[in-house]
Amino acid sequence: MKILARLVLITALAALLLLLIAGPGTRLAFWDFRFGFTLMRWAVYLGAASAVVALVLMLVPKLRAGRAGLLALSLIVGLAAAAVPAWQLNQARSLPRIHDITTDFSDPPAFRAIAPLRADAPNPPEYQGEEIASQQREAYPDIQPLLTEAYPAIVFDHALDTARGMGWEIVAAEPELGIIEATDTTFWFGFKDDVVVRISAEGDGSRVDVRSKSRVGLSDVGANAARIRSFMERLAERMN
Description:
Layout: H1 2-27, H2 33-59, H3 61-64, H4 68-94, E1 100-102, H5 130-139, E2 146-148, H6 152-165, E3 169-174, E4 179-185, E5 192-202, E6 205-214, H7 223-239
Antiparallel strand pairs: 1-6, 2-6, 3-4, 4-5, 5-6
Helix pairs in contact: 1-2, 1-4, 2-4, 6-7
């Protein structure tokens, strides 16, 4: 039974390894992101299986004798390896399968300078209209334009500094048009998501609209909405 306990631990460690290399391997272009997702699924399968077997062995005194520490470690590692991707999968299922988020449905900010960078991207730069707008309204009702009493030129400078502070790669900054285009690279998988910020005059102040769109994938698991939300909050803080 000692061999079985070791096999359980090896399986749990293998699951953890798959989880740890799935993202960085994709980011470093060792494999396609789809293969990276496959590795994460196997991390769930192996991690859950090793945790279940370890728990069963721990509940039987004869099988647990002399191997409690090894089995406990297998249980912890297996659960850790399975929990993260399982949580992400649950998030993906609970959110709409959209990857283009904007604060303006009728006139979403357009990608111009970034458009050539998306030439080979599976997701086109064009906005798909009401089909995704209705899903965004339901899932992310808080994603709204930012209205401020400051002049557009002042807001533009603050918006540009905010974008840089968030680590975005600035592709274009056109103060005369009030347009900022940038690319944000996700930490783990290295996905490229593109952002366009538009500052326009609104009454005696300004209106800030933002659009964030993923280059690949059907669902962004809420990443684009979170990015816009964070940008708007930081910009609002700077304007106060």
